Structure formats: structure tokens, C-alpha cells
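Quick question about two entries, pasted in order.
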Amino acid sequence: MANIIVAGSVNMDLVIRTPRLPRLGETILGENLAMVGGGKGANQAVACARLGAEVSFIGRVGQDEFGNTLLKNLKNEGIDCEGVTVSEDINTGMALITVVKEGDNSIVVSPGANMLLSPRDITSQEDKFINSQASLFQLEVPLKTLEEGLRLSKKYGLLTILDPAPFTEIPDSFLKLIDILVPNSIELRQMSGLDDMERAALSLIQRGVKTVVVTAGADGAILFESSYISRVQGPAISPVDTTGAGDAFAGAMAVALSEGKSTQETIGFANCAGALACTILGAQTSLPFREDVEKLYRQTYRS
């Protein structure tokens, strides 16, 4: 069984579906408001747990009702939450998510307690790194905290995976600690300053990242290594809400690689997890279980 450490954000997502995004200054009517567990860190932790991994999560919530609910939800998923700190005098992170009928979304995040996650929070859980195979990070918490997580991961020989969202400038010293970078095409351009996908990915590899896997939505994912490029087409689905798809993909990659799957099989497995996450409204509510991912994988790649 894979043992994975996830360090990152915890948010309560406030989700509303609308026919379209409002113009500046415009008010439009949407559907009923849904409150769903979110935050890229928590999403990826749940994704890994539902795919069969033993997961230790490091994060922060506020001392409020949202924090209590989110922490309870994570524990109900079987996630080790010993590394989650409850912070006083600050709210739990929140995200305002508008989903249009085609399934695309617009998101605004209030980080709250997430920005208090500190390097000390990471080092206090050092014993969890010893017997883990992989660690998974995102950019919704301070960079210095993630750098400590990456440093500890390297100390104990863990595979390190970074989902670079939301975009933040990352120094080369940080990139050299990353085994697999998983951006979408927009984040890839932001990180590299280049429009050409191949040149952009290879420039990041030259700066220190070992492997870049670019998620491309309905087109699957593209793998870039120093001397190898491969596209793995994803399954065809009818999207309802793309929120959480990238987190499902990253979590599935961490699980599959920890289990010793080949890179090609791993990307196919992750494509299926990301696709299934697009078929249900919300982030954590949409994250698929192992049986469903394996079924779609067989239908997509072995039929």
C-alpha cells in the first residue's frame, strides 16, 4: 500500500452554478449555493485516500464551524490529521467558485489559516516522512513551508510532486527539489515565460525539475523528460464541473507511482481520475474511488 504525505491548503468551497460568468458590475441569478470541502491540499489528500493510499495530511484550519466540518470530513476519509493545526483568531480558508453550464469555473480564494502553515508544522511531522514513498505539494500555502517539506522529502528519499497552482514565482533552488511538476498549460506559460509548450517544459527541466507532466483537460496529458516526450489521450466525458480535476490527477499520479506503475500507465490512471472528477459538482464530492478509476482505465486503454 502506498504511503503518501500531503501538505497544503484546506478550504470551504462556496459553489454556485450560473448560465455564464457575470460582466463587471452585472448581477445575474444562479442556482442553489453548495458548500463543499476544498483546498488543493485537502483535495489531493482525499484523492489519494480514495485511491487506496495511507495518507498523512499537514495543514491548518481556523477555530470556526467550517474548520470543524472540514477536519471531520478529512478524518472520515481515513486520513491521518495529526499534522492539522487549529489556529485561533483567523478564519478557515474559503473559496468562491462560479461554475458555468459547460463545466468551466472561476475561483477566488480567501486563504485564511492556510497562510499560517509554517516550516515548524512540517518538521513537527518529520517521523511521517520516514516510511512514506511520495509527498505532494501545491502553492496555496507559504513557499518557505513547502520548501521545508521538499527538503525533508529529499532527506528520506521520497518522490516529490508539485502542482504549481495558483501561480507563484519559484526560484531555481526550489525547482531542483521537485521530481515531478504537474502544471496545466496556463501555469506552464506563467512559470517559463514561453508560449511553446515543448520549449516551456524543457526550460523548466533545464532549471532543475526532473519531469514535467502538463495536464490538458479533454486532451489528456503530455509527459516531458529531458530526452522523451509523450502524449497520453484522456477518456471522453461530458463535464459538469472541472473543479478538483487537477487535484484528482495529481493524487492519482502520487498513488500510482508509489505503487511502482510505469510512467505511461500512471498518466493514463491519472487521466481517468481527473476525468471522473469532472462529472460531479464540487471538489471533494467529485473525487473518484479506486474501483471507478480502474473501470474507466480498462474501458479507455485496454478495450
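Here is the second entry:
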Amino acid sequence: MLKGYQVLAFRLRGRGGEIDILARRGRVLAAVEVKRRATLEAATLALGADQHQRLIRAAEAAARGRPALAGLDLRIDMVALAPGRFPRHLRGVISTGADRS
């Protein structure tokens, strides 16, 4: 929120799957996956290809169900968390190909 995002939902469950955070900033609709691991590097590598595709489907379904979100540019973001470290917000992530959560 400090970066200008309007948080629309936390833990949004729908047909496509679950989105940890759904947020909007300008013309961007961000489906945000939150990963906590022992290190920030491990957290940033934790988004698998299958989960990435589920996030896309879930975000598209959420946008279809809310006319105010129609026409926004969909983006998959990640917030990586690790003990003793500041959270890292990664914009426009693609999957690493690993299928682990």
C-alpha cells in the first residue's frame, strides 16, 4: 500500500485457485504470490510453472467477475519473505520452471 497499490483482496479464493493478494495500481491488476523461505533467494525461486499458470487463471477469473477491473493489464508479482530480512517485492515474475511451493 505504501507503494501506491490499492489492495482489493487478501487470500482470494475462486475457481482458478487462490491469490494471496489482489491489488491495483493505475492500469495494472497485480496477482501477488507471497513466499516465505529460509532465504530471500529460496523464496524468489519458489514459484513453479504450474502455480504461475494457476495464478494467471485465478486473476483472469477475478477480473471477469468484477466489471471495474475489465481492461486492466494483468501482472503476476511476488513478495519474498525471509527471517530477519526486509520483504522483497518482485514485479512481473515468470515461473522458474520448478514445481514446488
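Reply: Confidence is low (pLDDT under 50) at residues 97-101. The first strand starts at residue 6 and ends at 14. Hope that helps.
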